[in-house]
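Researcher: I'd like a candidate sequence for this fold, 257 residues long. If you have to choose between options at a position, lean toward the conservative one.
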């Protein structure tokens, strides 16, 4: 019975993501919600399966620890701890530049994670804390930077947006995927034509595959996922906002020794 309830909850969240629950009607709303239908998800999966991708090798590269000389960020979260992320500048240069510059200039200092859904993601980066604010370092929205080799596995750092049909719509908001592997979700995605080797990596790393090919993955958590899990488990209100603010104290950008 618990497994059935868990799966129904998962499907409700999936429906929430795919339909947008009406919030996409707000023109300047930046969120992970999108008006894409499940048919679009299926078509995207089939298109991605035509691209020659070694998902195992790509996943190992995505999950690898940063090497000496690489730029990383340390997100200090008040009363929780540190979450460390590495970047994929070669694939998503604008998203990385945007996040790093904002971080260095203190843009994210004092900003909250305003939207939290357990077994999905935690979202922040809006100075207003409403999900309706924030802007890029250029003052205007910029476009998605997608790669079939970067997958929204558990711990992926992604740009929040209003979906591909509204591109460009990237500003300052970001989210970290938190979902763990779910076999029934895997079966569901298999039915939509996701490649078998991609699903195998999903089994290894978890994540939220319905976002694959639709949202910019520009970084990966390499240390501190237990902090992300703690945040994902906090009590939230009906709009998925934490009842008690989860605050980013600061974001340090450093070079790995």
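Model: Candidate sequence:
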């Amino acid at each position: 019975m618990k497994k059935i309830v868990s799966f129904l909850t998962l499907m409700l969240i999936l429906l929430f993501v795919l339909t947008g629950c009406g919030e996409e009607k707000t023109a300047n709303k930046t969120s992970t919600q999108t008006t894409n239908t499940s048919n679009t998800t299926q078509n995207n999966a089939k298109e991605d399966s035509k691209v020659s991708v070694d998902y195992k090798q790509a996943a190992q590269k995505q999950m690898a620890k940063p090497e000496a000389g690489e730029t990383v960020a340390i997100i200090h979260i008040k009363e929780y701890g540190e979450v460390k992320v590495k970047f994929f500048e070669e694939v998503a240069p604008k998203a990385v530049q945007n996040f790093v510059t904002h971080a260095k200039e203190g843009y994210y200092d004092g900003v909250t994670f305003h939207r939290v859904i357990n077994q999905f993601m935690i979202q922040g980066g809006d100075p207003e804390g409403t999900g309706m604010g924030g802007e890029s370092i250029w003052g205007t929205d910029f476009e998605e930077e997608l790669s079939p080799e970067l997958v929204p596995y558990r711990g992926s750092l992604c740009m929040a947006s209003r979906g591909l049909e509204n591109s460009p719509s990237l500003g300052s908001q970001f989210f970290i995927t938190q979902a763990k592997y779910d076999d029934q979700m895997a079966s569901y995605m298999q039915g939509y034509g996701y490649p078998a080797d991609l699903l195998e990596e999903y089994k290894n790393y978890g994540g939220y595959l319905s976002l694959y090919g639709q949202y910019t993955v520009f970084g990966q958590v390499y240390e501190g996922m237990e902090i992300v899990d703690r945040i994902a488990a906090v009590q939230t209100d009906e709009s998925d906002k934490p009842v008690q603010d989860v605050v980013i104290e600061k974001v340090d950008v450093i070079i790995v020794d």
